[in-house]
Amino acid sequence: MFYRTIESALKNGEEKMPQATKQARLEARITHSTLAIVRRAAEMQGRSVSDFVVAAAEEMARKTIEDSHIITLAVEDQKRFAEALIAPPPLSPAMERAHIAHAKLIENTHVSD
């Protein structure tokens, strides 16, 4: 992503911030009361309803994606996780067999030069 302030653009001799080309359209049907709330919020931020809705949708989309990629653990769980990484528990018999089978499979797939 590329973010700049208007001040930094003006310092660099640019008259306007670069604008992204709008290439897609999004339509939604909402209730009159929801539209009234959105209009009021857009007015409070000095934006058009369209700009407000697009910004809000993008912000929520980014947050949703971020939330699905970040795991939050309590302090005690963080400690247990770190300890398991530093000193993992011994493999169960089934995992040991799987490890041996995997090693044999990999060993048989290497091609000699």
Write structural notes for this entry:
The chain is an all-alpha fold. It has a single domain (26-109), classed as Up-down Bundle (Single alpha-helices involved in coiled-coils or other helix-helix interfaces), CATH 1.20.5. Helix content is 62%, strand content 0%. It is built from five helices and no strands. The longest helix is centred in the middle third of the chain and has 21 residues, at 49-69. Mean pLDDT is 85; it is low at 1-6.
Topology overview:
Layout: H1 6-11, H2 32-45, H3 49-69, H4 75-86, H5 93-109
Helix pairs in contact: 2-3
What is shown here, in short?
The chain has 113 residues and is an all-alpha fold.
Net shape: elongated
Alpha-beta content class: mainly alpha
Query: Count of helices?
Result: 5
Task: Kindly state the percentage of residues in helix.
Answer: 55-70%
Question: Top keywords for this entry?
Answer:
single chain, 113 residues, mainly alpha, Single alpha-helices involved in coiled-coils or other helix-helix interfaces, 5 helices, 62% helix, elongated, disordered N terminus
